[in-house]
Amino acid sequence: MLVLGCHVAEVSGARQVLLSVHDAGCVFSRKITPWEVYEVEFGNYAAQLLQRGVLAEGCASTLQCLHADNGAIQKSSTLRSKMEWLSRAFVQSPPREQ
Predict the structure, then answer these.
(1) Is 23 a domain residue?
(2) Could you give the CA distance from residue 28 to residue 33 in angstroms, rounded to a whole number?
(3) Is the separation of the CB atoms in 46 and 73 below 8 Å?
(4) How far is CA 45 from CA 7, 13, 37, 49, 54, in A?
(5) Pairing state of beta strands 32-38 and 89-92?
(6) 3-state class of 38 per DSSP?
(7) Number of domains in the chain
(8) Residue 68: in which H helix or E strand, if any?
(9) Has residue 98 been placed in a domain?
(10) Residue 25 is part of which domain span?
(11) Percent of the chain at pLDDT exceeding 70
């Protein structure tokens, strides 16, 4: 299972978005496959990053699902389309109760 992470932080006064894909297939190894830093959150970036990670790791035939939180990028139609193109399930966390 791959986990798509999106972390937003302010670095030297500028907003930075870190996108990463973690291989959660092994309990002891949280290997970060690809990662990129951007200035904006954009679904196309996540879709491209996911595709690069899947191709680089050679796991296109064994990838069963992608887990993502309920962030804007993870909900984007571009990322969902990429997952459909990869013919895989898309799993989102249920909303947290306040």
Answers:
(1) yes
(2) 15
(3) yes
(4) 14, 22, 10, 6, 14
(5) unpaired
(6) strand
(7) 1
(8) strand 65-68
(9) no
(10) 2-92
(11) 69
The model's pTM: 0.69
How far is residue 30's CA from residue 25's CA, in Å, rounded to a whole number? 8
Give the pLDDT confidence score for residue 78 in this predicted structure: 83
Strands 89-92 and 65-68: parallel
Cα–Cα distance for residue pair 59/63, rounded to 1 Å:
6
Determine the distance from the C-alpha atom of residue 17 to the mean position of all C-alpha atoms in its chain, rounded to a whole number.
12
Tokens of 28: 């002891």
Three-state secondary structure call for residue 61: coil
Query: pLDDT tens across 59-97, in order?
Result: 766 666 677 677 777 778 888 788 777 755 555 555 455
Question: Could you give the CA distance from residue 5 to residue 42 in angstroms, rounded to a whole number?
Answer: 13
Residues 6+ apart with CB under 8 A from 67: 1, 2, 3, 4, 24, 91, 92, 93
Nearest Cα to Cα of residue 5 among 29, 28, 34, 27: 34
